[in-house]
# Entry
Amino acid sequence: MPELPEVETTCKGIQPYVENQTIVQFIIRNARLRWPVEAHLTQTLKNTVIQSVSRRGKYILLTTQKGVLMLHLGMSGNLRVLPSTSTPIKHDHIDIVLSNQRVLRLNDPRRFGSVLWHDAIQGSVKNHRLLCKLAPEPFSKEFNADYLYQKIKTKNVAIKKLIMNNQIIVGAGNIYASEALFNAKIHPLTIGKTLNKDMCQRLVTKIKNVLRESIKQGGTTLKDFVKPDGKPGYFEQKLNVYGRNGQPCTQCNTAIEKVIISQRASFYCPNCQPVKGS
Ligand SMILES: [Zn+2]
# Structure
């Protein structure tokens, strides 16, 4: 599943080709994404300029003078910039044809992605129902130890589940949550309200680090967003615990264990991450 680092890299990858370009044509090949793509967009978006490309949570926002197009990659989506003459392949559902003879193309085999429209008359896109409750961005100053401590100090819930809640923090998907907890030496089942401020500080630092490191590695794949044969998507990265059930811990050689928390697999080292943390 594309996580925040992949979305950030997609955003940066498409930006130079998309920003300040006029939409020549908006093509809907299959409107049945997570939510139906609004048919009027083929008319509404024609001849409008994409003023900026930005990101909020896992939404890519294409801002025009008429409103904001909100793209989400869902479980399996990807966005590519291709020559406008290139032939669509299976699962290429949406094309945004641009004045620079390129096309921004959404491919999504599982169709959990979305292309939503927020009209300018509805005010700031920040107030959109899917964005207004989102927690601070992980790299923002608002996401700090005091903030996390206040958010979780009464919560009788496993810390892994809390940091994956996008009303507490956005961007700590399953892989990154497991890795950050390992790096912070906190067991994923530790109850939120038992974390002290020092533990919150460690966890905040490690979440930022693990996401930053992933984005840094993803930066090397930026060129793939304009190559027809490129395969942008899931970053290859060195993982300490995620998916390593039964394998030796990179720090102490203890076998990595797996536990299911809220239907998601979580991985941890029972030696490096004692149950209560410390
Ligand atoms: Zn260990």
Observations:
- The helical segments are 4-18, 41-44, 145-152, 159-163, 174-183, 197-218.
- The chain has six helices and ten strands.
- The chain has a mean pLDDT of 92.
